[in-house]
Amino acid sequence: xxxxGGKLARVxxxxxxxxxxxxxxxxxxxxxxxxLSAFFPRETSLTQEILLEQLKNGPGSRLIVIGLKGESRDQxxxxxxxxxxxxxxxxxxxxxxxGEYALESAVIPExxxxxxxxxxxxxxxxxxxxxxxxQRQRDLTIGGSSFLLELMARDPFLQTLKILQRLAPVNMxxxxxxxxxxxxxxxxxxxxxxxxxxxxxxxxxxIRQAFRDxxxxxxxxxxxxxxxxxxxxxxxxxxxxAQKRTILAITALLVVLFVIYRKxxxxxxAALPIGMGFLVGLATVALIFNSVHGITLAxxxxxxxxAIDYPLHLFSHARQQTGNAAIKLIWPTLRVGVxxxxxxxxxxxxxxxxxLAQLGAFTASGVIVAALxxxxxxxxxxxxxxxxTTTSKTSPRSRPLxxxxxxxxxxxxxxxxxxxxxDGLWEDRLSSLSPVPEHRLxxxxxxxxxxxxxxxxxQLVLRAKSLESLLRDNESVDxxxxxxxxxxxxxxxxxxxxILPSQFVQKQRQQAIPPTDELHFRLQEAxxxxxxxxxxxxxxxxxxxxxxxxxxxxxxLFEATALDSWLDSHLIQVADQWASLISISQPKPGxxxxxxxxWEQQIExxxxxxxxxxxxxxxxxxxxxxxxxxxxxxIALLLFEQKEARRxxxxxxxxxxxxxxxxxxxxxxxxxxxxxxxxxxxxxMGLGLDYALFVSRTETEVEQKATRxxxxxxxxxxxxxxxxxxxxxxxxxxxxxxxxxxxSATSFILAFAGSRxxxxxxx
Amino acid sequence: xxxxYRTQHGTVALSRLLVIFLLLCAPAYAAPLDLKTVFENVAVxxxxxxxFREERHNPMLKExxxxxxxxxxxxxGHLRKVIETPFExxxxxxxxxxxxxxxxKVRNLSLSKSKPIRAMLGGIEAILAGQxxxxxxxxxxxxxxxxxxxxxxxxxxxxxISSHLTSMLVKGDEEILSSIRVxxxxxxxxxxxxxxxxxxx
Lengths: 763, 201
Known about the structure:
The complex is a heterodimer.
Chain A: H1 5-29, E1 32-33, H2 46-57, E2 63-69, H3 73-88, E3 93-97, H4 112-115, H5 126-142, H6 146-154, H7 159-167, E4 184-190, H8 197-213, E5 221-225, H9 227-261, H10 264-288, E6 292-293, H11 294-303, H12 309-317, H13 323-350, H14 354-376, H15 404-420, H16 438-451, E7 458-464, H17 467-486, E8 492-494, H18 503-512, H19 516-528, H20 538-548, H21 564-568, E9 571-574, E10 577-585, H22 589-597, E11 603-607, H23 608-642, H24 645-670, H25 675-695, H26 701-726, H27 731-754
Parallel strand pairs in A: 1-6
Antiparallel strand pairs in A: 2-4, 2-5, 3-4, 7-10, 7-11, 8-10, 9-10
Chain B: H1 2-8, H2 11-30, H3 35-42, E1 48-57, E2 65-75, E3 78-85, E4 89-94, E5 97-102, E6 105-108, H4 111-128, H5 132-138, E7 139-145, E8 150-156, H6 159-162, E9 165-172, E10 177-184, E11 189-195, H7 197-200
Antiparallel strand pairs in B: 1-2, 1-11, 2-3, 3-4, 4-5, 5-6, 7-8, 8-9, 9-10, 10-11
Helix pairs in contact in B: 4-5
């Protein structure tokens, strides 16, 4: 230590400086997000863009599903009513529904409130006015709704109600919603998109507050599901679960390391490369990207599992010599491993999605830093142990490497996969990426089905060059759809025309409103046939006159209104085109598609389920291509470094065999591979390369012992810590944990099986 | 029936009536007025039918709408209000459903509108069927008067219903219900007079 004292101090100062700079970057730039869509692929085609838009921002995604259970139906109904009433008044929600169409709580949103006379064709003839007033007189005999009275005065046709009812995201049955298990169900449509976690959190707090404010006996349970609710929940559970599992894993790691090395000092030293790697890796991501995803943070750390191997190799080899001597011995091998792993992670950084790019950049930079710390900083701390047995007298010898075990395993696994895995290797459902536990998703489905939310799988997409021509086309398509619905090809649909008619049609409707005097005259004619007061409909007369000179309704007028997001989910502008998304319920997809094809408008039916599968497939094949390319690069690197074709062949085969076994086992257990598994497999590749590189080294007998010691330590710690993650309930953690635990164990077994050693060498 | 006559005849009739009143009502008068007795008196066995005349007042109207028709108690849980003039319309409260027949078109009215009417008809049915528990479940009530001339003031327990329907005042004698006055929010109110079958003839 003394000899190196000065150098150690200099090196240490440099590393501490780097740590401080990283910390400074983190404190000024680090912004965490929990937006799951960062892990969705970057969009490619228009339909895929629409799909992602729907996932991120669609009306379905903005629904928080509220379940109430544990009491009698009547009591739940009362709470459901109260919560609905109180939530309706909160600014967080556009719409709060529980199945009943409650007039008194309905607030008429702009621009419907101003433009109600232009949103539908209205007949202003004497007969039509007579009829409307007769109907309203009858409505009065039912009585009991002050809202209705106010509405009538400005809208004797009750046009506003028709518009609002058609805009509801679900088919209102007018009965309170109850799920099969007796839970009362409410749907709260948030104003903010699901990805705005802060807003979703506020919305959820409002819901919980409303629940507490209602006369709840303690036996009533509140359940919240839906994209927004899950995101908020995940933000907390991912954090808690990741924390719990990480603490468990690290504790186990420390215990095992202590048992293996029996030196407390080494435990602290092992933390240096990992800690520095984490700090610098995170700072790198913070520098490159605007915000760091929570998942990058949680899972990137676990992906750096490969980095713990670096100090372990050093420690095992330093049992017989100084740290500096040991690192010089193993560095060439370690370097190749680090370079290969970095190539693999950089490949990840270049493919797929922002989330994966972050993971890749984080892990690649983290691994490099961890390796550098192991090479240039750690060795200074490790003095030669007492009673040193200096370098072994025996000369280095190459190990006999058997290709057969790996080859056999590879063949048997591939054959087994052919026979056993009938469902295919890949799980392409977008939902498989969801970190939401399966039972929660199932529950969401159960509650939603009580509310009869429409199946968002199919949509019609209509396109045009300008907004006006799109709206005109949409109006024609509405008529065609009316016919199609009459022919039973679909049940119902919602399109932008409901709240945004073309300017042409708006003008027509303005012209259809009779002159003020004329309307007044007709209205008086109608009023005298009823007991209504002469001035009962004065407000309607005023509004009709105003409507004639309103400036045309345009998307700009929806900004900051309650209907803004409704419009957004039905009308989008993509590049130089406008698209209308027409949601359809209960279509006969095949027949409807055939019918739509005959229309002259630029319209197509989109199967969101299918395009999500396509999307994932494209995403995954992109990732695979990049990874294959990276593998070729790694093989080239190995050949360049090792110059020993047989050893390289052995390494490649061993790694391939362990990857294949891992894929086989994981596919059988998890019903298919997802992109997350793919990411974890990259780490398995890194570990496998590391083990294979080391056990195939040309070394002296003493070194061989040290190498075996190191690889056993690495494999043991990795398998154990990731085994702990595999027990998690969060799919992403579980996928990563299991894949790496199995991969590490398999890589270890195959590497040892392939490098024959005589019995006396086993220590 | 007797009370109906009282309103039509003058003070001469009144003294005569008082005698009858005392004779008829003496036993009941002595006992404290309770809901059960009242209900036993006015209870009706289904099927039964009574005619009504109803005035509906509303600030939008220059004069009240006057409805005539009949109430039909079909069987327990099934009560129908049939309007005959000035137009034809009927409401059927059957189990937990309310059906409106307007010009032959049957539809279920939205609950927000039908809740007050359901409460109202439900309350009447509870009285006719003598179901004190059911009435108690739906309303806070206050019974005043004598068994010969009682009034029952009902206020809905449900906060939701009371946001439309403030109160109901049901009046009756020892045989029948005679009138129901319903107070709603925003100056809306209605008065339904039950026309006794004999008086009707």
